[in-house]
Amino acid sequence: MTLSMAWVRTLKDREELVFCSDSRLRFGCAWDACQKVFPLPRGDCAITFAGDTKFAFPFIHAAMNAVSLHQGSRRRLVDITVVKPFLLKAINSMLSQISDFPQGETEYEEPELRLVFGGYSWLKKEFVIWKFHFNPGEREFRHAEVRDWKGLGSARKIIFLGDPEASLSAMKRAQRKGECKPNPEDDVQELAKKRFIELLADRNITDGFGLNMEPFEVLRDMLRSEISPHVGGSPQLVKIYQHLNAQPFGIRWASESRSSIAILGRVLEATEKAHVPVLNPDTLDVERSNGVDSDDASEVEVVGEDS
């Protein structure tokens, strides 16, 4: 179960692509230490998901391996717009290799999964985000590019993924499979969108330009309020920069009545050092952690202002 987001963050002199997610998986219990945002080896892109992990994790690891094994992709000799159909083809090829179905069944179950893939395109000179979704008629994953959010200011490119979600496609899927339809009150995706719009309205920036860290604040507050059993754990955050590098961030997060650092969902042990910038989720300041090299000094700035 998941609440994931990706958006373009607009600063005074540049832009960043930000991925964030909660850290909970459910399988009869809650496991709040699981990575859901994955930078890909070429460094200029990342992928996240919402939905069935028995499909998500094999797909994501296959995507990471596909990028690593392809020399042109690994060295960024090809643009991310070329990598996107390459990854989609790899995912669909994997589906064609599912076999040995249970007695009475002739095909695999419909994957209840959506993925978000995005990064910086040096051809387009902009950040690009795509959603991968399963098309039940064609029995394969298709893609849709994420555009600016119409009717909500300008230059605001963002996507929310929640699971469960009560969209029309989810309702139809439940009907086809003879399952109970999702309850709209449990739709964490729509709840996050609503809170996001309310946050912009409260700050009188509904008609503004670009986004800062508002989506992260929505995720942070939903996690703290335990608004849903489907999302939990610490936030996890990865940035993609225009200089074609990905940077995971540590998050200072309360754990067992003490403040700990969590990186990509996992809370570090007291003896571990965080070799990444660490974000204070309340002030949105980035601090230098023990072990961050001096080369990372560019990250030790105030996130809420200019960094």
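the 2nd protein, sequnce then structure:
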Amino acid sequence: MRNDHRGDATRPPFPRGPLFAAAAAIAITLGGILLTQASGVAPTRPSGVAQVSRDLRFEDTPHGAIRITDAATGQLVRELEPGQGGFVRATLRGLARERRRASAPGPEAPFRLTAWSSGQLTLEDPATGRFVDLGAFGQTQVETFTAILLANGTASHGKLAQGTAQQGGTPR
């Protein structure tokens, strides 16, 4: 029986410097997250004045679509078929999870979609106070939610400032 250790003597040792640097970066990131959560610091609320605001209900249908209706009128705004609106679905999943944690009302309570004079576009859950700055996720997501906001030519408050959709939400 032969013991073959051919590669062991000639293989250089694994460089520890990059390994320690990666571990330190991970530790700093996790520490920052924990510190931010413990301090109760919330994302910055939008500055400016609400230009257009619309309260919307999002409802899952039996065939897997998401039906979006205007909470004030009950009018159908849009229906996202299965496989469509992945970002919309993911955003709503996160907000719904927060509602469950806070024991807040379920799907019957509307969400508020708002375009701000600062150029931000936000989706807020008035039941929990949580909001998402949609501009942080890119132009495509801003365009998707702007189309929902302006669908059927109705919105509950104000006028959309020229260029809000072109600005990509959050000014950079």
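The longest strand covers residues 50-60. The chain has a mean pLDDT of 77.
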